[in-house]
Design a protein that fits this description.
Blueprint: E1 2-5, H1 15-19, E2 24-26, E3 32-34, H2 44-53, E4 59-62
Antiparallel strand pairs: 1-4, 2-3
Length: 65
């Protein structure tokens, strides 16, 4: 599983870094970003929860080919 965050949609609310700090963090502009390229298998459920809880839909799960 891979995720990205559309910075232009992120409002910096902090829900994703608070839910999954091993995957998400804030950049210098105060917006969230995915700090890992591939989500560890043991964190996939938490990341899916973060995707569902994102108020702006900024977290995008990349479809694998």
């Amino acid at each position: 599983m891979k995720v990205t965050i559309k910075e232009e949609k992120c409002m910096g609310c902090g829900s994703c870094p608070s839910l999954v700090p091993d995957v998400f963090d804030f950049n210098d502009n105060g917006f969230a970003y995915a700090k890992v390229e591939t989500v560890p298998t043991n964190l996939e459920e938490e990341v899916k929860e973060a995707i569902d809880m994102c108020p702006t839909g900024a977290i995008i799960e990349e479809k694998s080919e």
